[in-house]
Fold this sequence. Notes:
Subunit structure (chain A): Associates with components of the mitochondrial respiratory chain complex I.
Structural class of chain B: alpha/beta
Structural class of chain A: alpha/beta
Number of strands of chain B: 7
CATH topology of the domain at 56-157 and 216-318 and 415-485 in chain A: FAD/NAD(P)-binding domain
Helix content of chain A: 25-40%
Radius of gyration of chain A: 28 Å
Largest sheet of chain A: 8 strands, mixed
CATH class of the largest domain in chain B: Alpha Beta
Helix content of chain B: 25-40%
Oligomer: heterodimer
Signal peptide (chain A): 1-20
CATH superfamily of the largest domain in chain B: Ribonuclease Inhibitor
CATH architecture of the largest domain in chain B: Alpha-Beta Horseshoe
Cofactor (chain A): FAD
Shape of chain A: globular
GO molecular function (chain A): oxidoreductase activity
Keywords (chain A): Electron transport, FAD, Flavoprotein, Membrane, Mitochondrion, Mitochondrion inner membrane, Oxidoreductase, Respiratory chain, Signal, Transmembrane, Transmembrane helix, Transport
Distance between the termini of chain A: 99 Å
CATH topology of the largest domain in chain B: Leucine-rich repeat, LRR (right-handed beta-alpha superhelix)
Strand content of chain B: 5-15%
Number of helices of chain B: 11
Number of domains of chain B: 2
Order of helices and strands of chain B: HHHHHEEHEHEHEHEHEH
Largest interface: A-B, 54 and 53 residues
Number of strands of chain A: 18
Amino acid sequence: xxxxxxxxxxxxxxxxxxxxxxxxxxxxxxxxxxxxxxxxxxxxxxxxxxxxxxxxxxxxxxxxxxxxxxxxxxxxxxxxxxxxxxxxxxxxxxxxxxxxxxxxxxxxxxxxxxxxxxxxxxxxxxxxxxxxxxxxxxxxxxxxxxxxxxxxxxxxxxxxxxxxxxxxxxxxxxxxxxxxxxxxxxxxxxxxxxxxxxxxxxxxxxxxxxxxxxxxxxxxxxxxxxxxxxxxxxxxxxxxxxxxxxxxxxxxxxxxxxxxxxxxxxxxxxxxxxxxxxxxxxxxxxxxxxxxxxxxxxxxxxxxxxxxxxxxxxxxxxxxxxxxxxxxxxxxxxxxxxxxxxxxxxxxxxxxxxxxxxxxxxxxxxxxxxxxxxxxxxxxxxxxxxxxxxxxxxxxxxxxxxxxxxxxxxxxxxxxxxxxxxxxxxxxxxxxxxxxxxxxxxxxxxxxxxxxxxxxxxxxxxxxxxxxxxxxxxxxxxxxxxxxxx
Amino acid sequence: xxxxxxxxxxxxxxxxxxxxxxxxxxxxxxxxxxxxxxxxxxxxxxxxxxxxxxxxxxxxxxxxxxxxxxxxxxxxxxxxxxxxxxxxxxxxxxxxxxxxxxxxxxxxxxxxxxxxxxxxxxxxxxxxxxxxxxxxxxxxxxxxxxxxxxxxxxxxxxxxxxxxxxxxxxxxxxxxxxxxxxxxxxxxxxxxxxxxxxxxxxxxxxxxxxxxxxxxxxxxxxxxxxxxxxxxxxxxxxxxxxxxxxxxxxxxxxxxxx
Lengths: 486, 258
C-alpha cells in the first residue's frame, strides 16, 4: 500500500510534471484552441453570423432585398443610388455579388476611360451630361467622413470627331441635337482644324466636331474604388462568389387582349463560393443584372430566351462579350499637350497619356476581323496591319512610334443596336438590366445607376426617360441605333 | 494609366460590420498615406455610433453648402443692371478686387457694390479681376464668363479652382491677355492642357502648383502649347538631377530663364 501510495504520489508528481511540460511545449496549440473557441462564441452571440454548428462568415447572407450580379462600375452605381434614394435610412438590404475581386477581366478597369456628350440619341447625351456633373462633384456625392478626397485625374481635353464627305451631314445633325440638349460642341472646318491642331493631316476630312467642355478622360479605377468605399459605408454588403442558379416560380395570367402569358418571379439566387462546391441560397426580392460582358449567361440562367424564337419568351438578351485591344506607344514628336481624343472616320482613335509623349489608342475591328473573346490575349499584328497605317495617315508624326505595351478588354456588346439595356424584363418581373452599353458604359454609369434605382423604387423613370432602352425593344424590333460609336 | 496600379492593395471585404473596415479601403485608395492624426473623442465616437457618424456627415455637408451659397448666381442684379455689375458685385462680396475700364481698382472687404455704384457702373465693362484667395468655384465662374472684355484675371491661391474650372475659361479667349493661377492647390497639368483655347494670352503664371506632378516638364509643354505667351513657372531646371559640385553652384545663381 505504501508502494501504491508512493507510486500514486509519484504518478501525480509525474502528472504534474507532465502537465507542466505540456503547458510549456504546447502554448501554440493552446492559442489556436482559444481563437477557435472565440470564433465559435462570436458566431453564437447576437450580431454575428448565427450558425452554432459551423462558421459561415465567408458566405453571403441568407436574405437580401436586392441582389446585384456583377460588381463593376454599373453594379456599384446601382447600389449607390438605391441606398441614396431609399426613403428611410437602412430600409433596403443590398448585396453585390462579384466573381472576381481583383477585377482582372472587368471592362471597367480595362477601359480607356473617356467621357463625351457627342452622341446621336438625345437620351445618351442626357445620360452623359448627368454623369459628367456627377464626376465633377464626385467629392460631394461620394464623400466619406475621415477619408481622403477622390482624385479622378480628369483630363478636360475633349473629343475631336472627324467626318469624311459621306458623314458630314449626319455629323451636322448630331451636333444640332447635342447643342439642343446642352452639350458644348463646336463644328470646325478643315482650315480651322489645321490652324488649331497643325499635326493633323486633314486629307479626306470634310468636317470635325470638337467638344469644348465636359469631355475628356479619367481614371476608372479610382471611380470604382471611390464608389466601393462609399457604398460600403452606406451599408451595402459585398460577396465574392458566382451566381449559378436562380430559383423562381411561375404564374399564369391573361393580358387584356385575352392571351395567356407566364410571368416568372425569382425567389432565390444561388451564390457559389470560389474553389469550393459550397453555395448559399440567398432569398431576394429583386435581381439586378449588371454582369457586363457575361450578362447574356446570367439572363440564360434566369430562363430568358428559352422559348420558341419569335416570341417574347424566346427573345434572348443580345449582349455578348467582344474583345477590343488598346495599345500604348511612345512617339517623341507626337501631338502636344492640347491633343484631344481624336476619332478618325476609319474607326481608329487615340489620346495622350501623361506628360511623357505616350499615347494610347486602338481601332474597332470590322465584323470579319472580330477576335476570339474566350481570352484576353493581345494580337500585336492587329496594330501593325490595321491600326498603325490608319494612325500614321491621320497624324504623320505617328510614322515613327514604338509600342510599349498593350492590353485587351471586353465590350459588353449589344448585337441589336449597340445601346444599353435598362429596366425590367417583361416576363421575369423582378430582374432588372443595366448592361449592354457596348463601350460607353463607364461614362454613363452614374446616370444609368440612378435610372435603375428609380425604376426599382418608384416603378418608372423620373429624371431621364430611358424607355427607348427597355428590353421589350428586342421583341418589337424597334432599334435605338447609336451612330457615334467608337 | 488605366491598368490597375500595383501599389494598391486590394482589400477583399466580405462582410463589413460597422465603420471600422472602411479604414483598410481608405488606405488602399490613397497610397500616399492618410496621415493618422490624433484621434479625437469625436472621431472615436463616430466610429462606434451611427448617430455621431450621421452628425459628422451633416457637418461636412454644411461646409460644402457654405461654399455653394457663396457662389450662387445673382440673376436679379444681372437682369436689371447687366453682367458687369453682377460680376463686380460677386467678386467684391467674396473679398476680391475689380477694375472697371478707365477707373481705379476697387476693393470693398466683403460688402459688394453699393446701390449707387450699381447704377453708375451698369454699362462700364470690367477690364481686370483679382480673385486671389476667393472661394470661387465652378458655379461661380458663371459671373466671370459673362465679362466679355476681361483682359486680366488673377486666381491666385483659390482653394476651389480646379481642372474643371480651367476647362470653362474658353469663352474669354478673345480678350484675356493675362492669367495667374499661382498657388491653387487643386490645379494639375491636366487642367493646364485646356488653356490652349486662350490664343491671346500673353502672360501666364503657373508657379507653385502643388498638384502638378512635374513642374519643369509641364512648363516646357505649356510653352510649346502657347507660343506667344510668356509662361512664369517653376523654371525648367527644377527637377533636374545635378551633380554635387554643380548643385552647390546652382543654389547660389538663379535658374536660367526659359
